[in-house]
Structure formats: C-alpha cells, structure tokens
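Collaborator request, handled under Task 6.
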Amino acid sequence: MRDLGIVAPVDSDSPIFMNTGSKIDQILVLLLGLFFALSAPCTWAAKAPLTSKKLEKEASHIVSGQIVEVTSTIQKSLIEKGLGIHRDRVFTIRIKVKIISKGAGVKVDDQIDVIAWKPSIRIPPIPGLQGHELIPKKGEVVKFYLRSKKGKFFEPLLPNGIAVKKDGA
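Structure tokens returned to the collaborator:
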C-alpha cells in the first residue's frame, strides 16, 4: 500500500482503479459520449415569439389574404444538422393577396407562395427550433409577416409570423 498523505491510503486494488466493464461496454460508452458531444453544438434553442413591433420591424413584407392551397412534404431537415435522423414537414402555402401593409413587388390579387415548416421526426429527440407555430388551412384569412426568399417564395418570421384573422376580414 502507498500512502499519499491525503486522507486515506489508496492502493491499486481500490474500487476506483478496478476495471468493471468489458471492452464492448467501454467502446459503447465512448461512442455514446462522442455522439452526444458532436451533436450538442449543432442544436438550436427554441425561439420565443416576437412582439408585434418586432414582427413589423423585421418583416420585409406584410401581407393579408385568403389561403388558396396548402401542400406539404417531408424532407431532410435544413435546420437540424446534428447526428441522427431529422426530418421536417415543409408546407407550401399559396395565398391570394388582398392587403399589402409593407413591401414591394407584390400586388393586390397576386398569388404568392409562402414556405413554412414544423419538425416531423427528431431522433434523438434534441430540443431546438420548433418551426412555425401556426399552419393555416385552405380558406382561412391570414396575415403574414414575411422575409423575401429567392424567386417568388417567401418565408414567415419564426416562430409567429403567421396570424389567422379571427373575424375573417
């Protein structure tokens, strides 16, 4: 036995130094540790809803109108890039514009496409961005706070850039 002069003597037969797992167990622990270490930096925090003033300031376009069509597909996530299986449901929302409160290049009675998303599959279930809070249905009257994307596509501000008008006007 060696005396380290601390509090108690420690020897090589101490439970601290015992090999308690097989090589497979050690490799499994190492792989799990690497998996979580590599996927952790890729996570995003959930985003708090924006105030109405912030929505108006950050939006390049603010439009209102009636939903003509809503389609969706499931695709590999462009947001979640960590290790695992990550799929998003991406919605293409076609709106017939009735009111333009902000922005250029869109006219009344134009039909524009808005791309929104929500997570569909997250394995492992890592917390992060949860997409757009609300996906409207066909026929609803909606106000969008948008960012212009390439072409004729727009994206609502995250997470609450879509607001269904209660009175239908």
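The cover message to the collaborator said: "The mean pLDDT is 82. The first helix runs from residue 23 to 39. Please let us know whether this matches your experimental observations."
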